[in-house]
Amino acid sequence: MPIATVNPATGETIKTFDALTSEEVERRLAAADAAYRTYRLTSFADRARLLERAADLLEQDADTAARMMTLEMGKTLKAARAEAAKCVKALRWYAAHAEALLADEEPAQADVEDSGASRARVHYRPIGPVLAVMPWNFPLWQVVRFAAPALMAGNVGLLKHASNVPQTALYLEDLFRRAGFPEGCFQTLLIGSGAVEGILRDARVAAATLTGSEPAGRSVASISGDEVKKTVLELGGSDPYVVLPSADIDRAATTAVTARVQNNGQSCIAAKRFIVHTDVYDAFRDRFVAAMRELTVGDPTDDDTDVGPLSSEQGRKDLEELVDDAVGKGAAVLCGGRRPEQMDHGWYYAPTVLADITDEMRIHRDEAFGPVATLYRVESVDEAVELANDTPFGLSSNVWTRDDEEMAQCVRDIQAGAVYFNGMTASHPGLPFGGVKRSGYGRELAGHGIREFCNATTVWYGSPGT
Ligand code: NAP
């Protein structure tokens, strides 16, 4: 895949970039290694000051950064501005909370005595340079949610960003440099995915995190496993959106539209499978389909646009194939199901709702990475939960109900990294984020995220004697 900025709204190649040579990669690995040796010794207060400065700079740059994201991957400008603001918030959150999150832990006195210690504690230490392999869909946010905790923990970062967002990748390196982080603390590697293995196998790289597709995750995890290096994987999702009889149907339908088409439908935590109890199915379907039809598809820089283009020609082709496969096997098209008319340039796809889904259809199991919803009718809560779990993925889930027992059942039985009731899934700095099953493992954000790349060191003090 070439390293290039190609505008998804027009298909025009704006700028191409050469991949780093192996000598240039080596120089950056050496710089990361050297930076880590001293950066790990800095105080939380110093790191927080630098991260706050990065937040200030990003706040000032927000409009430029947002336009760059829209140009490179096609999200609407308003969504890009919101993404920049969310990154500012996360940088400040980790600057404020990291020290407390990584404070020494004191085991219970009985356990200390049982171990024969006079005292004991768990101390969180950094582990070294961490490679972050990141996707294009939230090109600032995915990186910031890795970088903020990593830098606050005393690690240093190496970013291999997706090949279609090189300008955003270079902007991030520049942001942390301007904020005052020492040389080598956060570097962007403009490389293709074929160069990732060599970096993972380099002894100076301690661990890796990948957000992206399952094949990419499997590759990074298996190479890292071979090297016995820790990984965190944030992979795909096909989140269920369950609507039960006690739900507020108007709100459930309105939120369903946003939950499906956010980021032009290209979000791992977008609701993708809409599972609706038969008692409210018709009411929900009619409102949902009407609202999906009303969406404005068009130029992502236009404030009136709800849904911009998909990020690449290949992305649209993959989505079209998924829809065509379902329609060929009997799915009903309630709206969309095609490219929008009179939009010859750019990689647009009409907001789509499909019903009568069966398990022979690929879309029943594969992730639909674009504005395409599948609608299912169920007769009971048990059936809804069973269908919610009938997927290889387990990232998040959404359930609309006012019934406490149904809530308890969903928390107990839905196989996912999160359950959001009466709202849509979103990530927040203070709440852990991650999946189960083929959606990956490990957690980002909150205390769970910052501790993933720390060495939880047991410190045991015996009696010093007399
Ligand atoms: P992708 O093709 O896997 O790309 C993601 C990153 O991995 C890119 O930097 C890519 O580099 C790199 N990559 C691809 N193949 C690789 C390999 N064999 N070895 C090492 N690196 C490799 O994913 P995508 O299609 O761009 O992104 C969409 C996917 O990400 C969806 O499945 C979505 O659900 C998932 N996602 C998950 C989360 C989450 O938090 N769980 C968040 C956002 C997105 P190149 O660009 O150079 O190929």
Polypeptide structure, described:
The protein has two domains: 255 residues, Aldehyde Dehydrogenase, Chain A, domain 1; 183 residues, Aldehyde Dehydrogenase, Chain A, domain 2 (3-Layer(aba) Sandwich), CATH 3.40.309.10. The protein has 14 helices and 17 strands. The strands form four sheets. Strands 11-12-13-10-9-14-15 form a seven-stranded mixed β-sheet, with helices on both faces. Strands 6-5-4-7-8-16 form a six-stranded mixed β-sheet, with helices on both faces. α3 runs parallel beside α5 and α9 crosses α10. The chain is globular, with a radius of gyration of 23 Å. It binds NADP nicotinamide-adenine-dinucleotide phosphate (NAP). The site of NADP nicotinamide-adenine-dinucleotide phosphate has 31 residues, from α8.
Helix content: 40-55%
Low-confidence stretches: none
Cofactors, ions, other ligands: NADP nicotinamide-adenine-dinucleotide phosphate
The fraction of residues assigned to DSSP E strands is 15-25%
**Biggest pleated-sheet summary:** 7 strands, mixed
Q: Radius of gyration, rounded?
A: 23 Å
Q: At the fourth CATH level, what is the homologous superfamily of the largest domain?
A: Aldehyde Dehydrogenase, Chain A, domain 1
How many separate helices? 14
What is the molecular shape? globular
| Oligomer designation | single chain
- Looking across the biggest beta sheet, what order are the strands in? 11-12-13-10-9-14-15
The CATH architecture term of the largest domain is: 3-Layer(aba) Sandwich
